[in-house]
Design a protein that fits this description.
about 130 residues; mainly alpha; Helix Hairpins; flat; kinase; cell membrane; metal ion binding
Length: about 130
């Protein structure tokens, strides 16, 4: 976190093709930050194991694509949850009820995506094995 007493200068605005590369750099920085979260690393490991499982049970391309979309949506929700936590920690360094609610709601969103992904994986694997 940046110390509020020593503000960093605002970066210059980038336009044109350079904006595309700058945005890609911001996205990579976000991924690097997200990788510091143990929950995200666990989710990546679980996703890899699910894809391996789908491969060994002979899942179709469509089933792989649906799983990939669910995994990407989980990453999106995890990234937004981490952003909420960073902002809440910055704005409210001391414990507060609204801060707790914000973090709990972000955690709920991640849990819902994990359940949806797990349900899809379970139903898909069972439907292939028991057909």
């Amino acid at each position: 976190m940046t110390n509020p007493e020593t503000p960093r200068p605002r970066p210059e605005r980038v336009n044109g093709v350079a904006h595309f590369f700058a945005a890609a750099g911001y996205s990579l920085a976000g991924l690097k930050r997200l990788w510091r979260e143990a929950a995200f690393r666990h989710e990546v490991l679980a996703a890899c194991l699910l894809f391996i499982l789908l491969y060994f049970v002979g899942a179709s391309l469509q089933q792989f694509v649906v799983m990939a979309v669910l995994v990407l949506m989980t990453i999106v929700v995890e990234a937004l949850n981490t952003a909420i936590e960073c902002i809440v920690d910055y704005i409210s360094p001391d414990w507060s009820e609204p801060a707790k609610h914000a973090k709990d709601l972000g955690s709920l969103a991640v849990m819902c995506m994990l359940i949806a992904t797990g349900l899809y994986a379970g139903i898909t694997v069972c439907s292939i094995i028991f057909q």
